[in-house]
UniProtKB/TrEMBL annotation:
The lineage of its organism: Bacteria, Bacillati, Actinomycetota, Actinomycetes, Pseudonocardiales. Its main location: membrane. Gene3D superfamilies: Periplasmic binding protein-like II. This is MetQ/NlpA family ABC transporter substrate-binding protein. It comes from Pseudonocardia adelaidensis. Belongs to the NlpA lipoprotein family.
Length: 303
């Protein structure tokens, strides 16, 4: 899953397809602008209407780079578009989502793989309750609903473990399933992610992705726990700029990834998306090593 926005980022859930036409370029290339003033870089995103991208675009223009945002509403589309050379970069997903894509869509050669080239932010996955004001108030045997899609389910289980409500075999990881719960204070009930918020009145607590929490008007006061964005278990959920492997050292693309952390851009992001996200500055080697580890874990698990 771009740094996921308060409305759409944490979930990385599939939405109906409505893709704007992308300006095509040869794979691995950044075309020149028509007036010869610099390079044009097409970046795939899922929230192009957010104002902070206008600030970002202006900052890029000041550095001689014309950014063309290509908006997608189906999260299945930006990675194939990047692989096929219709984009030079995309920014919509976390490392876990990227690794899963690479494993399920093996490249013909290593240069066709997609790789992270710059961290953006982590968006915590919250535990909400309409009945309790703290995790300690959840009774023994209480029910907690979590999303049942693999990416969010594993992360939700790690959140419950961090909250002291379950323990997972081997400490758990980004591939954990309910079958790996070794002990539990609560009954964990996986449901469709879209139904987590709808169940909150009838259960003791619910892990709710940010977009569904916003739609259900869940409040900060109902948020009783969230994962630590600085923990090791949160690393797979760092969002990133992504390029083709052959372009991972392209100085213009690295420049654009770093531009996300321009103070004025970060301020605009907070104005648009709120303060729930934590900006991350992990170096590129660390991001790529984390992605490779997740890919290896997925292959070992037969994903």
């Amino acid at each position: 899953m771009s740094r996921l926005s308060r409305r759409t980022r944490s979930a990385l859930l599939l939405l109906p397809l409505a893709v704007l036409a992308a300006a095509c370029a040869a794979p691995g290339s950044a075309p020149s602008s028509d007036d010869g003033s610099g390079q044009v870089v097409s970046i795939g995103v899922t929230d192009a209407s957010e104002n902070y991208w206008n600030v970002y675009k202006q900052k890029a223009a000041a550095q001689g780079i014309t950014v063309n945002f290509v908006n997608f509403t189906d999260y299945n589309q930006p990675n194939p578009a990047l692989s096929q050379g219709q984009l030079q970069l995309n920014e919509f997903q976390h490392l876990q989502y990227l690794a899963n894509y690479n494993v399920k869509n093996p490249a013909a050669n290593s240069d066709d793989d997609l790789v992270p080239i710059g961290a953006t932010a982590v968006y915590p996955l919250p535990l909400y309750s309409a009945k309790h004001t703290s995790v300690d108030q959840i009774p023994q045997g209480g029910q907690v609903v979590i999303p049942n899609d693999p990416t969010n389910q594993a992360r939700a289980l790690l959140v419950l473990q961090a909250a002291g409500l379950v323990t997972l075999r081997g400490g758990g990881n980004s591939l954990s399933t309910p079958g790996e719960i070794e002990s539990a204070k609560v009954e964990v009930v996986p449901v469709d992610a879209a139904q987590t918020a709808a169940n909150i009145q009838s259960v003791d607590a619910a892990i709710v992705n940010n977009n569904y929490a916003t739609a259900a008007k869940l409040t900060d006061q109902q948020r009783i726990f969230a994962d630590d964005p600085n923990s090791e278990s949160s690393k797979p959920y760092i969002n990133a700029f992504v390029s083709r492997a052959e372009d991972k050292d392209n100085p213009v693309y690295l420049q654009l990834a770093a531009l996300y952390h321009d103070p004025e851009v970060e301020a605009a992001i907070r104005a648009d998306l709120g303060d729930t996200g934590v900006f991350k500055s992990n170096d590129v080697a660390d991001l790529q090593a984390t992605t490779t580890k997740i890919e290896n874990d997925l292959r070992a698990a037969g994903s």
